[in-house]
Amino acid sequence: MSEPDTAARYLDRYAEILAEVSATGRRLTRDELDARRALGEQAAERGHSLRSLVREHLAATRAAWPGSRGSADHVLAAVEQAVDAFAEGYERAQRQAVREEEAARREFIDDLLHGRSDLGRLAERAERFGLVLSSSHAVAVAEGPEAYDDVAPVTQRIEAALIARFGNRRILLATKNERLVCIASGDQDDVLAYFAGQAHAATDDGRVAIGRPRPGAGGVVHSYEEALSTLELAGRLGLDDPVVRAADLLVYPVLARDRQAMADLVLSALGPLKRARGGAEPLLETLRVYFDSGCTAAEAARRLALSVRALTYRLERIHQLTGADPADPVHRYTLQTAVIGARLLDWPAQEI
């Protein structure tokens, strides 16, 4: 029958060494110190706590304590050597375990977000990191003025806030391509909303995109890619919202799917604005703000820092140049769609 794996097992020859030191006054040899380090590594790998191991060493020291003062000094020095070497081995094993865990976590994140691994194997690995890929998941992606990394203070603050708020819920937080990624169950929108708020507050100038919940292991990839696309789209559209949801912007990818048709619409509906004094940009911005204001002239004028009369003049000028009246419901949809297309295609800054 094998000996139980107790903390006392890792004191091999410790009492004998103390007895020899007490009798001879010698110091521990290099081989003995290496043996103590090896025992420390083994104890760490088996999951024993350093506290219990030190307690066993102290108990063994007390049992072997010599009677004379001179011998006691030698034994105390030997105890210091032995315990220090043991703790060094223990810490070395722990550091190695942390490095291996970080490497495994990074590899898992890469495989999960790129769908490069066998889905069955990926699902098995996911459980180790708190995810059950048989259910649906949604992904939120945050980007800020500075790159995110695993050891950045802002990353650690956000992680601490999530743990404090949601405890042991199945949440995975990681960095990827200098962005911060949060993966949560599809029915835990409160987690992603809280993450988005924390990420935005931590950077003051960041933006967060939230993908839609998708089922299965492949669903994480789809939600992640959707969140990335939403971030890019929000930037191209110049949206002011710090948190954007893919579900709220579904119409834009549809509009951009046929690029040539969209380009034709932009040039046909808005191309004449280039003939205006100062070019198309001022009038295009006027249309954008007018539509964003719900076609309310007073609000649009306020946002543009214009008088209502000046705004009305601009709208009339747009009507003259394009033949479409922004205030007319019949023309409004065409103009508004063309304005969206111009933002998606970065027109007129880019030729189309």
TrEMBL record:
Domain of life of the source: Bacteria
Native species: Streptomyces collinus
Coiled coil: 76-107
Name by which UniProt lists this protein: Sugar diacid utilization regulator
Positions of the PucR C-terminal helix-turn-helix domain: 283-339
Keywords: Coiled coil
Record InterPro entries: CdaR-like_regulators (IPR051448), CdaR_GGDEF (IPR041522), PucR_C-HTH_dom (IPR025736), PucR_C-HTH_sf (IPR042070)
Keyword Magnesium set for record: no
Keyword Coiled coil: yes
Signal peptide (residue range): none
Pfam families referenced in this protein's UniProt entry, alphabetically: GGDEF_2 (PF17853), HTH_30 (PF13556)
Assigned protein family: Belongs to the CdaR family.
Domain CdaR GGDEF-like, chain residue ranges per copy: 115-233
